[in-house]
Each structure stands twice: as C-alpha cells, then as structure tokens.
Write a structure and sequence with these properties.
Blueprint: E1 2-4, H1 16-21, H2 38-45, H3 59-68, E2 73-74, H4 79-85, E3 98-101, H5 105-117, E4 121-125, E5 139-143, E6 150-153, E7 158-161, H6 167-175, E8 179-180, H7 191-196, H8 204-207, E9 214-220, E10 226-230, H9 235-241, E11 250-257, E12 259-260, E13 263-272, H10 276-286, E14 294-301, H11 303-306, E15 312-320, H12 323-336, E16 341-342, E17 345-348, H13 349-354, E18 365-373, H14 378-389, E19 395-401, E20 424-432, H15 436-453, E21 457-459, H16 473-477, H17 479-492
Parallel strand pairs: 3-5, 4-5
Antiparallel strand pairs: 1-6, 2-3, 6-7, 7-11, 8-12, 9-10, 9-11, 13-15, 13-16, 13-17, 14-15, 14-19, 18-20, 18-21, 19-20
Helix pairs in contact: 10-14, 14-15
C-alpha cells in the first residue's frame, strides 16, 4: 500500500514549556509545484550567453537563467529573493547572485547545468537549517523547499521523499502506517540535509543513523548529469553521501528504510540544576541496564532560555516496545532522583514527537559547538552546570545518548560516518536575538565551553563542525577516510561548485 503526502507545515510562536520538552525548531512550508520539461530546457539553453569564468553573475547571465526557468528565478531587490535566501540561523546572511525556486527535478537539473556552464557556485537550501557558509554574488542559491513529494510504501517498508520534506511531515506519513525511521530531533529540519550529514538525532541505538537507513537517492551531479546512487549504483558516491553532507551532488529524491513503531513509553523528566550531579551519577549506574530499544537525551538549560527562576535539566526518554516492560526502568530512575515534573507515559511515537512543539521561526541567531564525549565524568558535569548557571548565560547543552545499539554494530568503514563507539553527542549552543553585544557574548560563551571540554572530546560529528571549518574535518573522519572523501569529491565535483557547506575540498 502506498500513501502520498504533499502537506505543508506552518510553525507558531514558542512557549517556555516547549523549550523544556523538545528544543527549538524551524519550518519550510510550501506546496509542490510543476517544473519545466526537458524540451523547454533545451530551447531556452540556446539563448545562453557564453560561459563566464567565475566572479559575480553578469546581467546577461541572469537574464538567460530567467529565460531558462521563467517565474522561478529571483534577483536582489525582489520580495521572493529575500524570503528564499533567508536561513533559520540568523548569523548567516546570504546574498547570492540569484535564487532559483525549484519545483521539480528538472528545475534543479537546469539550474545546476547553468551554474556549471557559467562556473558559478551552487548553494542548496531546503529548510535553511543547514546554511553554514553564505552564498555570495559568485553563486546561485537553489531553494528546494517547495519540493514536497512524499510516498510511503507500507508493504516494502520504505519512504521516498523530495528535498523539501521536513521531519514532521515525513513522520506523520510513516506513522499513518505504524512505521517510522530516524529523523532530526527538530520536527522542522529537512530530511535530506539531515540524512546527508549522517542523520544523528536521538535514535541511533534503536534504528541506526538516518544515513544507515538510506537505500538509494536520485541526484544531479555538479556538471548537470543525473544518476541513481545505491550500494550497487555508483557505490563510491553512495558511501560518501552517507555522512559527507551536500559536498558531492544535489539530491532530488531519497528512499529510506522504515521500521514498525506504534506505541512507545516516552516523555520528559525535569530537574532543578542542583540535582544535575546526582542525576548523572544515577545515569551512570542505569547505563548498565538500559536496553538497545531505549534512548535518552539529557539537556541543561540556562534560565534565560526557559524563563524559569533557575536553570533546569531535562531527561527525555523513549522506550520502543511494550510500555509495561519499559516502566520498571523509568520507575527505578525516578525513585533514585525525584524530578520536578514527569510526563512519561504510553503514547504513540508521533504524539511524543509532535508534543505540540512550536517553532520560534527564522532569524534567531545561533552559535554552537558539537562534540562526542565518552563519559559524563564529574569534571564534565561541573563544566556543564557552571556554563548554564552563569547569570548572563544564554546556553543550552543538549546531549543524546549513543553508546552501543544498532549504529555501533556497523563497521567503521560502512559509510563516511566515523566514531561509532561514541557514548554521548553534545550540541552546546547559544540561541538568541540581539545586538552586537549579544553576539559577542554568545560567541564568548560557546568558545569558552569548547575550550573547557577540549580535553574530554572523543571526536566531532560532521553535522556540528560548521563554525570551526575544514580544520576540524580530520577530527570528524580521520585522515584516511578524509583522503578518500576528497578523492571522491575530485571525481564528482572537481571545481568545488558545491562548497557552501562544511566543505570537503577536492583532492
């Protein structure tokens, strides 16, 4: 049985309770439109001016691109240009030569071919969460947020989706058939960018990473040619795309593996910051009993983030299986350290995931630091507590538990993802709006956290390497794997047109 979904999602304003229970999210919400035919592209291509050699896009080239994709190309000064270039992270200010608002695979092909022939960089934006390096006037931005095609094949337990589909849209369609797959923790993060960056989230112990569940993808290469990639079709490219980000090709659709998921035992335990050390000590003992079908996420919040009188700590729990079998595990933890509040209950996975989460929207500024940590030792917990206890702290520290489970059973060379023996993934971030003084304070707090945690790092996840740039790529992959990725990049994108990302430069 197949189900097709082309819905859109519109986020609303956040409440402090939602920050405690779920995090901070963003949305790209529009409908799937019609694209151009190959014949139309061919006719318009005849009008193209001679290729340029890089640098700002000429007026003639912009006009030719508009002829190629009528109604879908926006230049500086238009309202559509401003809305399409905006990113979830307000620290990234993009000013591309033009924005192509893709509505179909053919639109992407046409835009990529044009960029390749004119030696223009190519930036991709679906939801704006993944904007890392701002596109300038030597590049075009392809906005794929309107490509919302989504088909669930319940019999084969697969889902195929276009790049505009976000996590909540994907999960709603899958859960209609009692199925699910790894997604980002944030409901409004794009499924494609999430998967390409490794697909971390909160479920690696249960179902593996998002990239571990990728079956195949339809892509457009940097020269405008197309191909299907899988374990048997262009396996080198397929290997690199599972954890190498958007460095190698532009995805027009993906097919992923689904898993049966109906009722779960799930919810959030909330604690005062004074209980943090006791809680983590209890988690260390609890670690010996937690089964592979259970996951948890531990978070530390400054009071400025939650609007509470004091900093708080939350523990999100999900048990995939009979809720009655998971209940004793939760009860033992609650008995050891009593929380301020306890929302753990039997419910559908979709109900837990949605949890009435609202999105603060585009434009908030973000600075963050992501690392893998082997153990939450007492010195580490002291650093975490002091970070959120500072009077002017604007920090939230989000830990996902990764030790053991499905993702760790795969060989280290199965995909581009490394560090499959990691225990905890930290995303420490400042999320705010404010002036230059607020920016400086946020940067100082994030960099201070990074310095303090440096002795405890066991690696870096690709999805959080953004602000520190290429110098940290060896920490993400290791030298041998990085060399392999650079060789694959040279093979498929030798001019590094796809460079507006955590960039892996061609060998």
């Amino acid at each position: 049985m197949k189900d097709t979904c082309e819905n859109s999602t519109t986020p609303k304003s956040p409440s402090r309770r939602h920050l405690l229970e779920g995090g901070l999210y963003a949305a790209a919400a529009t409908v799937l439109g019609a694209g151009l035919s190959t014949a139309t592209i061919g006719r318009a291509a005849a009008a193209l001016p001679a290729p340029q050699t890089g640098g700002p896009m000429s007026p003639d080239a912009l006009q030719a691109l508009s002829l190629l994709l009528p109604g879908a190309v926006f230049a500086l000064g238009s309202k559509a240009y401003d809305s399409s270039r905006s990113t979830w992270n307000g620290t990234i200010e993009q000013s591309p030569a033009a924005v192509v608002q893709a509505r179909s695979r053919q639109d992407i092909i046409a835009a990529v071919k044009f960029a390749s022939e004119h030696n223009l960089g190519i930036a991709i934006k679906a939801t704006g969460h993944g904007a890392l390096k701002a596109a300038g006037n030597d590049a075009i931005l392809i906005d794929t947020s309107r490509m919302k095609g989504l088909v669930v094949d319940a019999e084969r337990r697969t889902a195929t989706f276009e790049p505009g589909v976000v996590a909540i849209e994907f999960l709603r369609a899958a859960q209609a058939h009692g199925l699910a797959a790894p997604t980002a923790v944030s409901p409004f993060v794009g499924m494609t960018g999430y998967t390409l960056s490794g697909g971390y989230g909160d479920l690696p112990r249960v179902f593996g990473l998002g990239s571990d569940n990728l079956i195949s993808a339809e892509v457009v290469l940097a020269d405008g040619s197309t191909r299907r990639v899988s374990e048997t079709d262009s396996p080198d490219l397929f290997w690199a795309m599972r954890g190498g980000g958007g460095n190698f090709a532009v995805v027009t659709s993906m097919t992923v593996r689904l898993h049966p998921v109906k009722q779960v035992l799930s919810g959030v335990l909330t604690y005062d910051i004074d209980d943090a050390r006791r809680l983590v000590s209890s988690l260390r003992r609890w670690d010996d009993t937690i089964p592979d079908n259970m996951t948890m996420a531990l978070s530390f919040f400054a009071k400025s983030v939650t609007g509470t009188p004091r900093p708080v700590v939350t523990l999100a729990l999900v048990y995939f299986g009979d809720p009655e079998q998971g209940r004793p595990l939760v009860d033992a933890l609650v008995a050891d350290v009593k929380p301020i509040s306890n929302t753990v209950k039997a419910q559908s996975y979709l109900s837990y995931f949605e949890n009435d989460v609202k999105d603060p929207g585009y434009g908030f500024r973000n600075y963050w630091h992501g690392v893998l940590i082997d153990e939450l030792t007492d010195p580490v917990v002291d650093i975490l507590c002091s970070t959120v206890e500072q009077p002017d702290s604007m920090m939230m520290l989000l830990f996902s538990y990764y030790r053991g489970g499905a993702w760790s059973h795969l060989d280290e060379d199965t995909t581009a993802v490394s560090h499959r023996n990691a225990s905890w993934l930290l995303n420490g971030r400042a999320f705010f709006k404010g002036d230059a003084a607020a920016v400086a304070r946020a940067q100082a707090q994030v960099s201070g956290l990074a310095r303090q945690l440096a002795p405890y790092n066991s690696g870096v996840p690709f999805t959080y390497v953004e602000y520190e740039g290429p110098s940290r790529l060896p920490d993400v992959y290791g030298e041998a794997k990085l060399a392999r990725l650079r060789e694959i990049k040279r093979r498929y994108d030798p001019s590094n047109l796809l460079r507006f990302n955590a960039n892996i430069a061609p060998a």
